[in-house]
Amino acid sequence: MSFKDFQKFLDSTDSKLDIKRDIYPKMKEIIFHSTTAVTSKINRNDRQFCYLVLGYDFMIDVSHNVVLIEINKNTGLAESSPIINMIMPRMMDDSLRLTIDDLFEPAYINNSATNYKSPYPVTDYSDYENMWEFMHKL
Known about the structure:
about 45% helix, 6 helices, mainly alpha, D-amino Acid Aminotransferase, Chain A, domain 1, 2 strands
């Protein structure tokens, strides 16, 4: 379910919860703490210029707590749903821009990110936004 669809569901139940204000920051915090906890294990050989795409599965309980279900290092890149079909090409493009562009075009970090229009549009996200940028800043 997309964030937009989940927000519509919450609104239909008269919930005062806002995904971007109440749920997404908790997800980011969980991701930050989990990656920080295993940083030394992810790249044991201290290899330069490598990265790992992780898949995080979350659940929102009846009390609206964000619960981490699992983290996958072998993320399902198969196009298994309309949402995944839309997000996957963008995820790969954005993750490569954060790694390859950082290595070969350091200007990306300074300013060129705002000049790049993704050829893979995702509903409710700007084509000029890197959807995974916050992870790059960890």
